[in-house]
Design brief:
With about 375 residues, this protein is an alpha/beta fold. A seven-stranded mixed beta sheet has the order 1-8-7-5-4-2-3, sandwiched between helices. Strand 2, helix 4 and strand 3 form a beta-alpha-beta unit. Bound molecules: pyridoxal-5'-phosphate. Pyridoxal-5'-phosphate binds next to helix 3 and helix 4.
């Protein structure tokens, strides 16, 4: 039996070890522990990678969301449209700045937020919309931008799973303000926590830089209440090393995804994610759907294949936001997919033998349960 991990960061470290050690050692020698040269260098590299003018490095994706919302002027009394089918942080950040998340469903046969549902739910207090580029695929942005213009909404892209994803050649940050996470398991992962805000908007950048540093433009002069959300030097140094590999890693993820799609076509009741024309997905996750999800997951686990569910409980059904007034059944498509989605092993260093083993065991599941 083969043991196939869901993600394995150790494999990556094995070939990056020397470069990473040198980079971290350098930070220690310089005592450049908070922000500093390596972080500034990373900001330039990552902004260029996104084809944007600016990047502000912070200490997590959640922090990036909070700072971006604050810089956009979102606060108490404001409403923000968010999908319920996303990682919890997307909505939590809205609550953290004192605003109210308006949960919307996903589209039919799509994981992107549904603008028709948003149209029904917005009010005069709705100030922003957060399209989440879930699993690595960019939400169709032309309709989002049209909707935002029509209703006078600001646009914040949650690109925490979409490093390197493009739509018609454009990267996150080309439309709205984009936020990224460098949590270790993301496509670009730090050796600890990390995040960034990417934008072409100079005013947002100035505010974001101050907000990550206690609302200060000048040392010991505090213009507003901010946070301690600066990126650490060591994380910047690690990310600089990893930036050299990101494009290649995303290509490998795409190859694995193509292989899964080819070999899972017509297997049982499995459907794979449709990729919209013009989109290049970063394939942070490879997600299938089946009516037999729980049984398939248990079957695979018994055979050493580790999978995940992203995410099992939609945010509008979470206890923490219960007072939002959403009931079971309010977001039918979101609630339905939560029972059917399964994330297969996906990381650049997966080998063919492992992909074959995963596919073979999925086929076996349908043979024995027929
Ligand atoms: C990971 C993630 C976040 C939060 O990032 P952290 O760095 O863990 O704070 C937010 N939104 C989405 C969609 C994510 O996947």
């Amino acid at each position: 039996m083969l043991e196939v991990p869901f993600v394995d960061l150790k494999r990556q470290h094995a070939y990056l070890r020397e470069d990473i050690r040198r980079a971290i050692d350098n930070i220690c020698e310089q005592s450049d522990f908070v922000l500093g040269k390596a972080v500034a260098e990373f900001e330039t590299l990552f902004a260029t990678f996104c084809g944007a003018r600016y990047c502000v490095a912070v200490n997590s994706g959640t922090s990036a969301l909070i700072i971006a919302l604050r810089a956009m002027g979102i606060g108490p009394g404001d409403e923000v449209v968010v999908p319920s089918h996303t990682f919890f942080a997307t909505a939590a950040a809205v609550v953290c700045v004192g605003a109210t998340p308006i949960f919307v469903d996903i589209g039919e046969n799509s994981y992107a937020l549904d603008l028709a549902d948003a149209e029904k739910k917005i009010t005069k207090n709705t100030k922003a919309i957060i399209p989440v580029h879930l699993y690595g695929q960019i939400v169709p942005m032309a309709p989002v931008m049209h909707f935002a213009r029509q209703h006078n909404l600001q646009v914040l892209e949650d690109a925490c799973q979409a490093h390197g994803a493009t739509q018609n050649g454009k990267a996150p940050g080309s439309w709205g303000i984009a936020v990224f996470s460098f949590y270790p398991g993301k496509n670009l992962g730090a050796y600890g926590e990390g995040g960034a805000i990417v934008t072409n908007d100079e005013k947002i950048v100035e505010l974001a830089r101050a907000l990550r540093d206690h609302g200060s433009y000048k040392k010991y002069v505090h213009t507003m209440i901010g946070y301690n959300m600066r990126m650490e030097g060591i994380q910047g140094a690690v990310l600089n090393v990893k930036m050299q590999h990101l494009t290649h890693w995303n290509e490998l993820r795409n190859q694995h995804a193509a292989y899964y799609r080819e070999h899972l076509r017509g297997v049982g009741d499995i459907t794979t994610e449709a990729i919209e024309p013009g989109n290049f997905s970063s394939f942070h996750l490879f997600v299938i759907q089946t009516m037999h999800r729980d049984n398939l997951q248990a079957f695979l686990k018994q055979r050493g294949v580790n999978t995940g569910i992203h995410y099992p409980i939609p945010i509008h059904r979470q206890e923490a936001v219960r007072k939002n007034g959403c009931k079971r059944g309010d977001l039918p498509r979101t609630e339905a997919v939560c029972e059917r989605i399964l994330s297969l092993p996906m990381f650049p260093e997966l080998i063919r033998e492992e992909l074959d083993y995963v596919i073979q065991n999925i086929k076996m599941f349908y043979e024995v349960t027929r």
